Amino acid sequence: MIYLFNSAIRPLYLKNVLNTLALPHGWINEYRYKLSEYVSQDIQQDLSILSKGSECLISFIDRFDSKGYEYHPLRRGTLLSHRQEDETLHLKIVLGDFVYPTDRTAWQQQLLAELASQHLAALTNADPENTHDGLYVLQGKDLLSENKAFLSGEKAWVESVVAISATTAFAKASPPPVFIRLEARREERSKKPIKPKVWEGSASYLFKPDQRCVLVVNYRFPLQRADKSAKAGLTLELGEALKSLGGANVSIDSYSNSVVVPFISKKYREDSAGTISLSDDNAKGAALTFDRPLPYQVREGGLVVKVLLLLIVYAVASAVTAVDFSKLCPFTWLGLVHAAIPKSAGGVVQAFVLFWIFRMLGKKPI
Fold first, then answer.
1. What is the pLDDT of residues 267-286, one digit of tens each?
2. Burial level of 182, CB count in 10 A (0-12/13-18/19+)?
3. CB of 229 within 8 A of CB of 175?
4. DSSP element (H, E) containing 355
5. I want to staple 115 with a disulfide (CB 3.0 to 4.6 A). Which of 85, 120, 198, 251 is the partner?
6. SS3 of 137, please?
7. Per-residue DSSP letters for 68-104?
């Protein structure tokens, strides 16, 4: 298993913890590390260790805990790809289920027993802001499969948010953080989320034209517990191909809530692609939250099959119309087939010429 850690020492990393907790199951998030300083030697020397499909565990490190660094596991993941740019290692992870230990002390001991000898990041020189503190990308055995004392799903998300919202990095963040968990569903009553499609290193939702769905925005606003008057707001942006059937604003006015936003994909549209995103509604109060847009495409289901069938029909029709029926005497269906076969090559060529003309004009059927 590949272990990835984030201590939120900088605002960008703080935001990526929020992204890790917000993005739907199956979505892709990117993590980056300075190769020579934060990646273990065995991985540095052999990047093939980072093979596609490798299981990962993404964790947050609380640098300021009174007992030293404390490690909070957040999510499982699967490595999709990696690349090295100069001295930076970029990792694309397909996010999996949320996880959180029922006994944090026992988990801490188990994790240190596995990774401390590999120089896992730890409090250095009694200075929690010391960034020369160890490694953040390491390889080790799968501790989750050996440890059954773990929550998963929504319960794990709630427990992890409660725990890390009390840490110094988030408790002192300005503006105050709002922890979001997003899900797109076919309908409000359905508990089954829509799975994104992963293709060529990116993830995207696929909607059919005129399809009704809902976006479920689950949130926790920790500041509300200390200040009941605290409020924030988010604005939902759906792009040109989707239309909201409710309000576009999400009011953050309680500690915990779940807001359902119905929307429909447009039947007639100029653009077939766009993104779903949430941004600050400063009129209602600024908030620190995730910043990853969710791409989508609107297209007919099974379009490739339909196009192939139409091409076959067009080719057959072209071959049949090229037959000299005056020579079919007497007329038989078998005779027609024999006469059309030599003409079929021309029909196939015509069909694919038509197909490529559509592509060149930008009217892409697939």
1. 876 778 899 998 887 656 67
2. buried
3. no
4. helix 333-360
5. 120
6. strand
7. S-EEEEEEEEEEEEEEEETTEEEEEEEEEEEEEES-H
3-state secondary structure at position 195: coil
Both tokens assigned to 269: 């549209």
Residues 213-259: tens digit of each pLDDT: 999 999 999 999 999 999 998 989 999 899 999 777 889 999 999 99
For the cut 80, the answer to whether the pLDDT of residue 323 exceeds it is: no
The number of beta carbons lying within 10 Å of the beta carbon of residue 11 is 10
The arithmetic mean of pLDDT across residues 82-87, rounded, is 93
The token pair at 64 is 């300021």
- Dihedral, 296, 299, 300, 306 alpha carbons, nearest 10: -120
Q: Compute the distance between CA of residue 223 and CA of residue 235 in angstroms, rounded to an integer.
A: 20
Helix axes 153-165, 11-22, angle to 10 degrees: 160
Mean pLDDT of 171-200: 89
pLDDT of residue 271: 74
